Amino acid sequence: MRTFVAIAWATLLCAGLPAQSTGPSGLPELPDALYYVFDEGAGATTTANLAVPIPGGGSSAPLTGHTMNNAGMTGTGLTGNGAVSSNLNTGWVMDLGANSWTIHFWLDLTGVTWTNPFFPGIPSMYLFGDFSTNQFNAVVVGTIVRLSAIGIPQMNISGAAATNSPHAIGFTYDATTNNYSCYLDGVFLAAQPGNGTPNLSGNGTNAFAIGGFLVTSTLASGAVIDEFRLWRRALTAAEIQASWDISLGSTLAGSYQVNQPGCTLLVNGASGSPATPTNLSVVQGANVTVQLTSVNQNQLWDLGFGTNPLVSLAGGALTSSDGQVVNLDLSDPALGSWFNVMQNAPPFKDLQAVVTVFPGPPVALQAIVADPTRSSGVSLSQATRITVN
């Protein structure tokens, strides 16, 4: 049987399909608690959480007061307005307990001046925190960035809040060694032992906030935070050194092809994100609704399928000449397509079908529609994998 990949090649060869793409080596996986790149830009009132999996706070967070107007490490960043109570509410109440963690972010205070409305003359402002979690917070004091909470040692990074250039700042806790570590611009600075068993779990009275901490002095006007990352493990020094000056969003968040007007595939209305594919779990005998839409009516099209897990861009997925990602596993022995070859398909029309699922291996799906507006000549849909229980 001719495979979906062969169908894609038939259309893409004239556009110069590149060799198989792999992600940068040595990089950590996407954060599994919080990850914000703040690239929605001026006028946006929410920002996406690209963490995988999405934590209890949800896939987006609302902004109060602050904006995303100024340039960040890449794209735009969380831009302070200096007003008390301004913040980004993640919706996530810390639940780390005594387990390992890593917090890493980019801070730009270039040319910024600020005052503390509560303690005039002491230049301090809070960067993030969850008050209900033993007052866990990071604060700028002079040119120092200080992380602290009740029950953990105070960690200070001198020069991290200098106003002559931005810096990348990292803190880790390794529960296996009970050590806390600090990093500045990818460089390990120091480690210090814990002073007992930490408890970084909140009581739910408030959520973890970025750009503020309760109603205290918040991110100063013009100050920028970007690439905010929180993992539920302690990253190694090598991982931090490999990733401190690049956006994980640009290297990994594009791992999965995203639905767009050129070709949209929805199963039970579900759609993933650039960092997360659509993974559905359904009960045997249940009906699922498959919708396939495109602005490219009356064009050639096909629907590819396989049984292997979906492949991310970082995991070696093939890409088209215009950057679209083929997330079906090219080595899957069950790889195939609905019409065998794309040219056998009837002219595309939006369709919706209700299908009853039966026991069997998981099925991965990805659609392709000829698209004369793209340099590659095709549009690929979001990748979807269905598991029957």
Keywords for this structure?
single chain, elongated, 3 helices, mainly beta, 389 residues
List the helices and strands and how they pair.
Layout: H1 4-12, E1 34-36, E2 46-48, E3 60-64, E4 78-79, E5 87-89, E6 95-97, E7 101-108, E8 124-130, E9 136-141, E10 144-149, E11 152-158, E12 167-174, E13 179-184, E14 187-193, E15 200-201, E16 209-210, E17 224-231, H2 237-243, H3 248-251, E18 264-267, E19 278-282, E20 287-293, E21 301-306, E22 318-319, E23 325-326, E24 336-337, E25 351-356, E26 363-370, E27 378-380, E28 384-388
Parallel strand pairs: 19-28
Antiparallel strand pairs: 1-17, 2-3, 3-5, 4-17, 5-16, 6-15, 7-12, 7-17, 8-9, 8-16, 9-10, 10-11, 12-13, 13-14, 18-20, 20-25, 21-24, 21-26, 22-23, 26-27, 26-28
Question: What do you see in this structure?
Answer:
- With 389 residues, the chain is mainly beta.
- It has three helices and 28 strands.
- It has helices at 4-12, 237-243, 248-251, and strands spanning 34-36, 46-48, 60-64, 78-79, 87-89, 95-97, 101-108, 124-130, 136-141, 144-149, 152-158, 167-174, 179-184, 187-193, 200-201, 209-210, 224-231, 264-267, 278-282, 287-293, 301-306, 318-319, 325-326, 336-337, 351-356, 363-370, 378-380, 384-388.
- Strands 2-3-5-16-8-9-10-11 form an eight-stranded antiparallel beta sheet, with no helix packed on it. Strands 1, 4, 7, 12, 13, 14 and 17 form a seven-stranded antiparallel beta sheet that branches.
- Strand 22 and strand 23 (325-326) form a beta hairpin.
- It is elongated and about 70 Å long.
- The model is unreliable at 1-25 (pLDDT under 50).
